[in-house]
Amino acid sequence: MADTAITMRQVTPDIAEGGDADPALSARLDVLDLPAGGFTAAARKDALARLRAVGLPKPRDEYWRYTNPAAFNAPVPDPIPLAEQGPDSPLFLERKRLTLVFVDGAFDAAASDDLALEGVEVGLLSTADADETHWSGEIYGRLEAAAQERVARPMAALNTAAARDGVLVRVTGQPSKPIHIIHRRKDESADVYYHHVIRLEPGAELTLLETGMTGARSNFVAEVDLAEGARFHHITAKRAGHEKLGWGGVFARVAAEAVFKSFTLSVNGTMMRHEAIIDIVGDDAVAHVAAAVLGDANRGPFHHDDTVFITHSAERCESRQVFKKVLKNGAKGIFQGKILVEPGAQKTDGYQISQALLLDEDSQFLGKPELEIYADDVQCSHGSTTGAIDETALFYLRSRGVPRDRAIVLMVLSFLADALEEVEDESLREEISDRLDAWLTRHA
Amino acid sequence: MLKINNLHAKLEDEDKQILKGVSLEVPAGEVHAIMGPNGSGKSTTSYVLSGRDGYEVTDGSATLYGEDLLEMEPEERAAAGLFLAFQYPVEIPGVGNMTFLRTALNAQRKRRGEEELSAAEFLKLIREKGKALNIDADMLKRPVNVGFSGGEKKRNEILQMAVLEPKMCILDETDSGLDVDAMRLVADGVNALRAPDRAFLVITHYQRLLDHIRPDVVHIMSDGKIVKTGGPELALEVEQNGYADLLSEVA
């Protein structure tokens, strides 16, 4: 009983701080010029109220225990020199695609293609929000809000309130090429908020590629609404030096027989947190979330946090989480992944694997797998491993003449292969794999 | 070709001496067998020669064509012409068999100052070599040894040997886990590679592999040393009487 009392006392001040009286939140909001919004006005107001109710994330919050939110909570980010570009050329430039360029989170029409793609309606939050109505009004801030019912996600609410731009994409057909969003930087101290809304109508398909760097600090939300039988593939590849400090959240709702697949490649970054909150609401749907993370803390801290929450509330659905982190020179990787199976979500097939390959003794991986199951006829499994390079395999490769550094690169690629497999398109997969190879070879 | 002289080695982490003065010489063109009971140091000899971590050489030498093997990294030993066929070939998911072998071959060629093979040249080479070992395109495409049966793994070792064309081949209990047919296929592969400028050191518990790969010389190893050397008849003696008899005789 005494323990309980102590716990209660610790919790109470948190709640009090989360109110309007939270000076950190006030300081955070004071420097932001929050847009009133047109069709998003109500959603923005709601989001701000949610944010005020829960407050900024605190180190003691259950889902912030491994990632110190201080840098996300600071009113302004430290500037990051613009010159800090990785040595790699941008990805995906050689393929057919509809290119949309955002500079510090704002759409750059001159650098972008015409917003025309068959079977797709491409809009922009910045322009659409001048109007009182828009199709995305039913989604903007709504999927995000729904996800807050289970776990408070203050950074997402802040985004809904603060974002000025992002794509509003509605797909009705099967476009012949992907949409490619490229982020660029211009202002070395930009604090960037962008918010995408993506709606796939029944049977529609879309591949969304997202690359580049934005802001000294970035905060993005993507709300993805998939109707029956839709197929959405989101591939995000972040370059070395990209998003030194960033929080991002993908909020997806997946209807019957729809397929949601995302793959994120993250290379370097001081402090990054990616959240994926996926609600599978229709029968026979599929949701896969995968990430390959490469962290070398050689030139400064590296901290990468993946936090996933997949809810099954329909029958015969499949979810898969594949997270692989390669950590070096004291890099730190976090994975918090949850599968929630609601009552009645029978025949659920849930799978989760999080693995870290530590290339030295200074690096660290913290994993927190969670399964919460309220249906009796389901198959859910999870695994988490942390290990070093397999010395026997390394010797095997070297004994055949493969030099040590090259052998390690091959083994790291081998370690990442399961995550990369989640990229369905073979040519995309190869391009990403080549990029990984180049990075690993440089950092060998 | 291969000269091992008074080789002493211990485990790096423990004070446990395993090799206590191994000496033997394998001339070019010959096949030598090392037989011996469990724990006699046979596999350790192969690991120390090929440069596996975890062992410390405390005395003695090992040279290949006069080059000091023990000073080299494992990949340098491979380029110098040494090859170890593993008792337990390692599975490497995510690395294609063909990619692996081409990387290995070209790395060796590069180190020797030879021209690297193009993808097309390599494909031609590996198809030709694979055919003889009953290794089809599907096996070549799969990740290294992943999902291979015991026999397929050993055949894959011999394929690597055929492609890399080493001078000195060490086979570490290549017969373990093989049925008679698989063993014959592996032995045929090895026999096809016998050449005047190539030598083999075949490590085995049993005489039966030596029915298929006929050795010129048989060494018996016990407690970290070669205790007896003779012709193929020595292997038969082991088969008939076991190691105990032979070793008591030596002692």
UniProtKB/TrEMBL annotation, chain A:
GO terms for biological process: iron-sulfur cluster assembly. Residues 188-415 form the SUF system FeS cluster assembly SufBD core domain. It comes from the Bacteria. The lineage of its organism: Bacteria, Pseudomonadati, Pseudomonadota, Alphaproteobacteria, Rhodobacterales. This is Fe-S cluster assembly protein SufD.
UniProtKB/TrEMBL annotation, chain B:
PROSITE patterns: ABC_TRANSPORTER_1, ABC_TRANSPORTER_2. Keywords: ATP-binding, Nucleotide-binding. The keyword Nucleotide-binding applies. It holds the Pfam family ABC_tran. Signal peptide: none annotated. Residues 2-248 form the ABC transporter domain. InterPro entries: AAA+_ATPase, ABC_transporter-like_ATP-bd, ABC_transporter-like_CS, FeS-cluster_ATPase_SufC, P-loop_NTPase. One of its GO terms (molecular function) is ATP hydrolysis activity. It comes from the Bacteria. Belongs to the ABC transporter superfamily. Ycf16 family. This is Fe-S cluster assembly ATP-binding protein. It comes from Paracoccus isoporae. The lineage of its organism: Bacteria, Pseudomonadati, Pseudomonadota, Alphaproteobacteria, Rhodobacterales.
